[in-house]
Amino acid sequence: MKRITLLAIALIAFASCKKDPKEGDTLNDSIPETTDTATAGLAFESKTYTKKSTLPCKDVCTSVTIDIAEAGGAGVASDSINKSVFNVVRSIVHFGEQPANAKTYQEVMDSFVGAYDELKKKFPDDAMAWEAKVKSTVDYRSDNILNVKINHYTFTGGAHGYGGERSLIFNPETGKRLTRNDIFKDIKAFTAFAETKFRQKYKIPAGKSINSTGLMFVEDRYKLPDEIFFRENGILLFYNTLEVANNAEGSKDVLIPYAEAKPFLKIQP
Known about the structure:
- The protein is α+β, with helices and mostly antiparallel strands and 269 residues long.
- It has helices at 2-16, 76-92, 105-122, 180-183, 187-201, 258-261; strands spanning 25-31, 43-52, 63-72, 131-141, 146-155, 162-170, 227-231, 234-239, 252-256.
- It has a six-stranded mixed β-sheet with strand order 1-2-3-4-5-6.
- A hairpin with a 6-residue loop joins strand 5 (146-155) and strand 6.
- The two termini are 42 Å apart.
C-alpha cells in the first residue's frame, strides 16, 4: 500500500512539471479538448517549430515552419496519435526520393534546410529559396472518431510549389489509425453512392465517362479520394490538386450529409 501511495504522488508531481521547449520550438497556448466520456483525458496543445537557413539571402530565405496540435493526457493513445502525425509530416517535409531518417521535428527541419544549404553551396547562383509549411489541427472529434487535418505546402524550386491536405482518422480511446474497412460496411457500395453524388455536383451525365468533362481519374474509373474528412455536417470526400484534375482546376470535393452516409458506416460520428 505504501509503495502504491508513493507511486501516485510521484505521478502527480511528474504531471505538474512544465516541460521546457527544445531548441527550435515554441510552446503556444493549449487547445482544450475534453468530453464527458472515456476520452476526456485526451487534450491537445499547439507547438510551433521553426528553422531558417543561415546562408546569406536577399528577399526570401529558406525556412521551415511546423505547427502541431500535440496530443497529451491519454498515455499510449496520445503517443500513438503523435507518432502518426510525425510520420506524415516527415513524409512531407523532405527533399529527394526518400524522407530523412529523422526522429524529431528538429531533425526533420535540419535535414530539409541542410539539403538546401548543400545545394546552394554547389550552385550559388541557381538555387532558389525553399519553403515548407505544415499545420496540423483537430478537425473533428466525437466519442468514436478523432480526425486530424494536416495542411501543407512545400517549394523546392521549379515553376510552383505543392500544397494540399491530409486526413488522419483515429480511434480516440486507443490512438489507433482507422482504415476504410474500420469505417465503412461496404466500400464498394459506398464508392458507387459517392460517384452519383460526385457526378451530380460536377454535372457529369449518367452513362458518360467519368472523365468526359475533362477530369483525370486513372483508367477513366471513379475512385474515392485519398483523403476523407469527418465534418460537423457530413463526410467530406476531398481530392487534392492534381489527384483527379489539372493544376489550374485545383482541388475537388463532395460533402455527403450524415443522414445519407449513415447506412454505409460501421461507426457513428
